[in-house]
Design a protein that fits this description.
The protein starts with a helix and ends with a helix. Strands 1, 2, 3, 4, 5 and 6 form a 6-stranded mixed β-sheet that branches. Helices cover 37% and strands 17% of the residues. It has 7 helices and 6 strands; from the N terminus they run ααββαβαββααβα. It has 195 residues and is α+β, with helices and mostly antiparallel strands.
């Protein structure tokens, strides 16, 4: 990570035994790092989570609950200020990251409505639950996208082709700052990988 504070926090948590930290000697990109981590856990669902997210209470449990009642659930993403198809208030746009208080208010409102999960063509992996069955069926993230962008879309499209469903947990709102890992590189990576 280019964020020294995040690296220091993760290393301290690992030293306290709170997490199992897997470090790569060099940046291998999102897909390779996720695949490496996923290979260490063979019997559980996976949460793909960017470091620039703001999570409301019980995020993981709520994503798991959304998947639990849906036959052939493959991926589950939340509503977000910056989640492409699931962006709020303006879809397909990176809306500004709200304050923590506003985000939690949005999340409480979504939880109170308690709408059922909705099918999507694809989700984005800033915060994505991938069920173990889906992960195994598609073989993980493709390494064809280099350091990043669209490997999550590809995973979702392959999941659909394998008979799995991509869902949005309509009762959960997760904040996402967005574009922190690639900054100026983003446009070039998006244009290359979009093709």
């Amino acid at each position: 990570s280019p964020n020294p504070a995040l690296v220091a926090d993760l290393m301290a948590r690992a030293q306290r035994g709170e997490i199992h930290l897997v470090r790569n000697a060099q940046n291998q990109g999102f897909a390779a790092a996720v695949n490496r981590g996923a290979a260490l856990v063979r019997d559980a669902d996976l949460l793909l989570l960017n470091a620039d997210t703001l999570l409301p209470p019980r995020t993981l449990e709520r994503l798991l609950e959304a998947a639990a009642g849906i036959p052939r659930a493959g991926t589950v993403v939340p509503i977000s200020n910056s989640g492409e198809l699931t962006s709020f208030p303006c879809p397909n746009r990176s809306n500004p990251l709200p304050s923590e208080a506003d985000l939690l208010a949005w999340d409480r409102a979504a939880a109170a409505l308690d709408l059922p999960p909705q099918d999507l063509i694809n989700g984005t992996a800033f915060c994505m639950l991938v069920t173990r069955g889906c992960w195994e069926a598609v073989g993980g993230l493709s390494l064809a996208f280099g350091r990043g962008y669209y490997e999550d879309v590809d995973l979702c499209l392959r999941a659909r082709a394998a008979g799995y469903r991509n869902l949005c947990a309509m009762n959960l709102v997760v904040g996402h700052a967005g574009s922190r890992s690639f900054a100026q590189e983003k446009r070039a990576l998006v244009m290359r990988n979009l093709a």
